[in-house]
Design a protein that fits this description.
Elements: H1 2-14, H2 16-23, H3 29-50, H4 62-84, H5 93-107, H6 115-133, H7 145-168, H8 174-189, H9 192-195, H10 207-231, H11 236-243, H12 246-258, H13 264-286
Helix pairs in contact: 1-10, 1-11, 1-12, 2-10, 3-4, 3-8, 3-10, 4-7, 4-8, 5-6, 5-7, 6-13, 11-13
Domain EamA: 2-132, 147-280
Subcellular location: Endomembrane system
Transmembrane segments: 30-50, 57-77, 89-109, 118-136, 142-163, 175-195, 207-227, 234-256, 262-280
Length: 296
């Protein structure tokens, strides 16, 4: 059961690019981002009520607002990049996020970053650079500059959101923390669709697009629950390894659903940044873990 939950979360995250690309003909990036948080809060709230937990928004905490704003930026820039580029564009979010976490840890939390951490960050950014280059002649590199900038901004937002969670972990449980942060994200993004022509609707209504937005909300609200519950039942090292295959699934779906081109540079860059993330997690992978416990 534990491995299934971790794999379910990983698979859910890998489908984000396909779902955003499916919703994009009907909605712009602002509306998609708002929908992800609005329905995410709805699904998470229903889950918490079903588990007998009360709903309370902790909006007086500074780091809830910082985390909510950071996550809103993460989704907004990520969705814009996917809309402009390929559905697998968001494979660059995790390596940028990893690097951002290390930088924010040193700057905001005054934590010492080890040589292993900086090496991992260098490998992550090398992988990002390889994918961004994608074998293009130097004079053509600027053509994908906007997409790369959006992904870097999105990954930076994701990293700052993780830092906010670290600051709040002693005060709130993960459910209340995410419910509050996602509510702030939805609140910050809510004014944006009405400012766009057609309230963010850019094309004809589509059942597939609406289903994609609902699925994105479900992933936003519940994927962290699946992963957290899975972590209670499997060795941490196994969960880390399973989580890092997200990029491979993302690329597979992009080929299967949209027949998007996949070059050796994308594959090599992905291998390099996955190596960087695993290098950072190596002490965790070597640490002895208790066997998976039984239970639903």
């Amino acid at each position: 059961m534990g491995y299934g939950l971790v794999l379910l979360a990983t698979l859910a995250w890998s489908f984000v690019g396909v779902l955003v690309k499916t919703a994009a003909p009907m909605l712009d990036s602002f509306a998609i981002s708002f929908g992800r948080f609005f329905f995410g809060v709805l699904f998470l709230g229903i889950y918490m009520l079903a588990r007998g937990r009360g709903l309370r928004l902790h909006l007086a905490l500074k780091w809830i607002w910082i985390g909510g704003a950071a996550k809103a930026a993460n989704y907004l820039f990520e969705n814009a990049a996917i809309t402009l580029g390929y559905s697998y564009s968001n494979i660059l979010i995790p390596p940028v996020q990893t690097t951002a976490i290390l930088l924010f840890s040193a700057w905001l939390l005054r934590e010492r970053v080890s040589g292993r951490g900086w090496t991992a960050a260098a490998l992550c950014m090398l992988g990002v650079a390889l994918i961004g280059w994608n074998g293009m002649p130097l004079e053509e590199l600027g053509s994908g500059g906007l997409t790369m900038l959006l992904l870097v901004l999105g990954g930076t937002g994701a990293g700052l959101h993780v830092i906010s969670q670290r600051r709040l972990v002693g005060e709130l449980d993960s459910g209340s923390m995410n419910l509050s942060a996602f509510a702030v994200s939805a609140l910050l993004l809510a004014p944006l669709p009405p400012l766009q022509p057609g309230w963010g609707f850019v094309g004809d209504m589509s059942l597939a697009a609406w289903a994609a937005v609902l699925a994105l909300g479900l992933i936003t609200g519940l994927s962290f629950v699946w992963f957290a519950e899975g972590l209670k039942r499997v060795p941490l090292a196994a969960a880390a390894l399973l989580g890092n295959v997200q990029a491979l699934f993302t690329m597979l779906w992009s080929v299967l659903f949209f027949d998007e081109p996949m070059t050796i540079y994308v594959g090599l860059g992905s291998a390099v940044f996955i190596a960087g993330i695993l290098w950072l997690q190596l002490p965790l992978l070597r640490r002895p873990s208790k066997p998976a416990s039984a239970g639903a």
